[in-house]
Amino acid sequence: MMITCFGKNRISGKLRKRDSSSSSSPPGNWTSRDEKDEEGGKIIFFGRRNHLFDLDDLLSSSSQVLGKGSFGTTYKVTMEDMSAVVVKRLKKVVVGRREFEQQMEIIGMIRHENVAELKAYYYSKDDKLAVYSYYSQGTLFQMLHGNRGMYDRVPLDWDARLRIATGAARGLAKIHEGNNGRLIHGNIKSSNIFLDSQRYGCIGDNGLTTIMRSLSQRTCHSSGYHAPEITDTRRSTQSSDVYSFGVVLLELLTGKSPASPVVTEGETMDLASWIRNVVAKDWTGEVFDMEILSETGGDVEEEMVEMLQIGLACVSIKQQERPHIAQVVKMIQDIRSTDPA
């Protein structure tokens, strides 16, 4: 069910973001400009509960830039009551209002502990916004790669990585059930995976690919996450989602960023190709992240090898050889019972 909050039938405006990189900046980072035409929009919420903010609250609240990506700029917006949400200002939206709203409805219907909740959306001529739950622990990318080599770095241990993989797999499986089993994420990567309250992986940025301009071939190739067929077609599928998720598993195991090519013996390879090459030479142990090698005991090492095999299955060059995400969930859960479920 969708409702407009506080009985406001229509709120028009153009949202502007003043330069800001700190959440400590005073309220008023967002400003609005009234439109004389009828191309303004209204903020639409999902769910039956009462919401404690509206568009005016978003406009007047303090904000912090969390990141800029292919789909737009993401902000943390802190309300007067100190609650926080994530607001994604979408760029390069290529569909009209009707298609935009239909896709938002499909995304908004998904409720799962391992999928970032779409709380609301806003559509106007000049701005398209998606409002999500905020996760205070940051992204998997930050946890894996932030402060590498620094004395104050807190590395992710193997137990944490296994829980993240378990939750993210469940989340992607739930996403693929959406829209009568046809929903595609289209942008699986470690910067779109967060930790929920139980420290399981939780997937964000769900389902935006279908309303955005296709990524360029260069972007697809350089990201390190996209399946080989995407470089040519630039059309995501559930199978290509599985490939991208497999790259995330390999990233968890190696601690290497897929966006940084690996150079070995004078040859430049993407992460998946490098791992295939190493495993083919029976040097499997050399792919694992040094930060978790110190934990290596018999059981842990076996679990890491099992996860590696799952990741390699997901990144098979041939789409028909990749497992379905439901199979991936079962294989990961079979590595170790990480919870009573």
From TrEMBL:
PROSITE patterns: PROTEIN_KINASE_ATP, PROTEIN_KINASE_DOM. It comes from Eruca vesicaria subsp. sativa (Garden rocket). Residues 60-341 form the Protein kinase domain. GO terms for molecular function: ATP binding. It comes from the Eukaryota. This is Protein kinase domain-containing protein. Pfam families: Pkinase. Gene3D superfamilies: Phosphorylase Kinase, domain 1, Transferase(Phosphotransferase) domain 1. Transmembrane segments: none annotated. ATP binds at residue 88. Residues 13-36 are annotated as: Disordered. Keywords: ATP-binding, Nucleotide-binding.
